[in-house]
Design brief:
globular; single chain; alpha+beta; about 25% helix; five-stranded antiparallel beta sheet
Length: about 230
């Protein structure tokens, strides 16, 4: 695979991937980064790196979310958030966005690395997501059914939610490729759902029996079920 092709595929899976990486590196090198990491200790670990667009029409800029209110549904972009921003000249700093002050829109997220031994690091996780997505695309019938459903419901053209599900000591990670969603657009883990754990293996799981469920990549706008 050429570098250009790999770059295009990563951007398709994780919109804003290159900009996200650049801002993350600059943030971690900033002398005030430790302050924000103390306030949000899971940032870049269980909380993914989120790239957003902000500002008035015609003057939109991009920034990395490093503070605010986080939940399983993602960052609350309608509330107070802190962005790490960088100017074209290379200078960087922090921008506090108050409710209603900026029109903040999510561009995309990139999973963080982990300090937990039972969790994959970012490179491994991204590689697994890319492998599973490529395998899913290779099945013409599966993609046809999903695309038909997605067009009717105005949903993403391919599964974009990668989750970790634990059943006691057994931990499964994969793409959610079927199931039911709640009114807020998140997957309903209280019912059965389909998890693609390997390119040739899709498991139907009963979420009620799981001891732990966590979305490692995906937002409330991503990964709708087949209804």
């Amino acid at each position: 695979m050429t570098n250009d092709k790999a770059r295009r595929e990563m951007e398709a899976l994780f919109p804003g991937h290159e900009k996200n990486d650049a801002l993350r590196a600059a943030f971690l090198a900033h002398p005030d980064a430790d302050h924000y990491l103390r306030l949000m200790p899971d940032l870049g670990c269980r909380i993914p790196w989120a790239l957003v667009e902000y500002g008035p029409e015609g003057e939109r800029s991009q920034g990395l979310v490093v503070g605010g209110r986080w939940s399983a549904a993602g960052w609350d972009l309608s509330g107070r958030i802190v962005l790490f921003v960088q100017s074209p000249t290379g200078s960087s700093g922090f921008l506090i966005c108050h409710p209603g002050e900026q029109q903040v829109v999510l561009i995309g997220t990139v999973p963080g690395s982990t300090r937990h031994p039972d969790r994959p690091d970012a490179v491994t996780l991204l590689g697994h997501v890319a492998e599973l997505t490529a395998a899913w695309h290779a099945d013409a019938e599966t993609t046809r059914v999903w695309h038909t459903w997605a067009l009717v419901h105005n949903q993403p053209p391919f599964p974009q939610t990668y989750a970790e599900v634990a059943f006691g000591g057994d931990v499964l990670r994969g793409l959610i490729v079927g199931g039911t969603v709640l009114a807020d657009g998140t997957w309903d883990f209280g019912r059965e759902f389909d998890l693609m754990v390997e390119p040739d293996m899709i498991l139907s799981l009963d979420g009620r029996r799981a001891s732990r469920r966590e979305v490692l990549h995906g937002t409330r706008e991503q990964g709708r079920g087949r209804g």
